[in-house]
Amino acid sequence: MAEARTANRPVLRVLSGEAIAPPPAWMMRQAGRYLPEYRATRAEAGSFLDLCYNPAFATEVTLQPIRRFGFEASILFSDILVVPHALGQDVRFVEGEGPRLDALEGRAQFERLREAGDPAIFSHLAPVFEAVERIRGALPHETTLLGFCGAPWTVASYMIGGRGTPDLAPARALAVSDPALLDALLDRLVTVQTEYLVRQLRAGADAVQIFESHAGVLPDTADGDALARFSLRPIARMIEGIRAQVPGAKIIVFARGSGLEGHARVVPETGADAVGVDWGVDLAALRARVPAATVTQGNLHPETLIEGGRALDAAVDAILAATDGTPHIFNLGHGITPQTPIAHVERMLARLRAGR
Ligand code: CP3
User: Fold this and answer.
1) Would you tell me how many other CB atoms lie within 10 Å of the CB of residue 131?
2) Is the ipTM of this complex over 0.90?
3) Which atom of ligand 1 is nearest to the CA of 32?
4) Which residues pair with 145 in a beta bridge?
5) 58 CA distance to ligand 1 middle (Å)
6) Among residues 8, 125, 141, 250, which is most buried (max CB within 10 A)?
């Protein structure tokens, strides 16, 4: 049965190693503020977290970009920070500023978090699983449904800093002042989020993506391999844990900021099925660097999508040329931004679907 499903879903076929021309497409943050229908539902729902925890509204906004653009994949509408929230940390989204958490500064705050086996964690997240079920039921058959979570380091950096900071100074400072505490936090996130993704897959997600948005800023390590220590190994443990419960689960890892070499290490060192490529990496150079069978995803610059016109056409063509004959999923190199004109998304898809 699983094979029959895969056969009809282009994104799953690519994740199994098939090259499809033109490649199937979706966009990170495809349900978002650039869409008037999103802004309308968001206003009706109340706060951003109210939207995340309301299965009917979350389903509606997840489906909006599929209705409008017919993307080959749909991504569950939620946020990576619902997990710290489920662990008992205070999380709010401040209009125009982004997320704010009560910073985890030391042992006292860590001890107040829920333990990995606490059933309250997954009752808190129950609306997410209900949304996954509803979305899968409402999507066209051929559309792949992606679940997701943040990678342990990225989520931990928000939990420790209480907000996004360019240099992640608080999280890197904790790695020096109390490395055992950072490890305990990463371990808890590995355990809880392994189960979180297993439950999304059981609720109807066809594949999952792990967002390591902060792979470019890591604590120093004695051996100089911070990427392995703080990012790739915790992700590898999650993937092993997920596959032990859901054999053959398809998993994409987006390791933003890890550079050409970091991106090349993602699949071999985590066991992921695909590497999500950020806009800073030369896709042709990466394709030349990895085995031909490696599945890639990405990496149109979100600013090129804002620019539109011939620059956009050329960027789409360059991605097609770089990935020709290889298993690739077309995407942006980071999330779409609110000021992006809808007409540019249409132009991108027309160019892509016309082939080269
Ligand atoms: O991609 C999708 O359409 C699915 C939904 C999704 C959201 N956030 C919705 C969202 C996904 C996959 C995320 C992941 C996420 N959240 C990441 C990893 C990807 C990345 O962008 O690097 C991170 C770091 C977060 C944390 C987060 N959530 C930040 C930093 C912000 C504020 C920035 C912003 O764009 O406002 C959010 C808020 C957020 N998450 C919005 C959306 C649509 C905007 C909030 C709103 O509607 O007011």
Assistant:
1) 28
2) yes
3) 43
4) 74
5) 13
6) 250
Whose Cα sits closest to atom 46 in ligand 1? 48
Decide: 42 in ligand 1 pocket, CB within 6 A.
Answer: yes
Q: What is the pLDDT of residues 110-163, one digit of tens each?
A: 999 999 999 999 999 999 999 999 999 999 999 999 999 999 999 999 999 999
Number of structural domains found in the chain = 1
Give distance in angstroms: CA of 210 to centre of ligand 1.
13
Beta carbon of 48 within 6 Å of any ligand 1 atom: yes
CATH number at residue 103: 3.20.20.210
Report the separation in Å between the CA atom of 219 and the middle of ligand 1, taken as the mean of its atom positions.
24
What is the tens place of the pLDDT at every residue in 277-300? 999 999 999 999 999 999 999 999
What are the residues facing 178 on neighbouring strands? none
Tell me the residue range of the domain where 167 lies: 2-353
**Spatial CA neighbour of 188 closest among 83, 263, 109, 102:** 83
Looking up tokens 């059933």, which residue turns up?
119
Q: Confirm if 188 and 154 have CB atoms less than 8 A apart.
A: no
Residue 95, Cα to own-chain centre: how many angstroms? 22
Q: How far is CA 208 from CA 111, 243, 282, in A?
A: 30, 12, 24
CA 272, CA 134: separation in Å to the nearest integer? 27
